[in-house]
Amino acid sequence: MLVYKFIYSFPYYGENNKTDTYAGLFDSVESVGFRDVNNDNLKDIIVIINYITGAGPQGMVPRPRARIFLADKKEFLLAKDLIEDITEDIDEKDITIDNICKYLNNR
Fold first, then answer.
1. What is the mean pLDDT of residues 37-59?
2. Residue 29's closest CA among 65, 3, 69?
3. What pTM value is reported for the model?
4. Strands across the sheet with 76-78, in order?
């Protein structure tokens, strides 16, 4: 029997970790990167998560969403402002860890 122990729980984006009102249904984690996105010498975490909407002809095609967790001395903080900027300014087809870092460095 496998026993799981939670070491850390990351903050979630939607209320009660619900995603259907803004992204759709969770599909998969596409990639995870550990980068210092805010130049504070702490490794932040960038996660690209795929969602499906289930609506329309492309409803089952996974659509990427970025999540950025900024490192603090004792916890990670969800960077909603950076996430919203990325969502508005980077085309879905261009959402990668490298492109997110380039975008944030050029802000």
1. 87
2. 65
3. 0.82
4. 25-35, 44-52, 63-71, 76-78
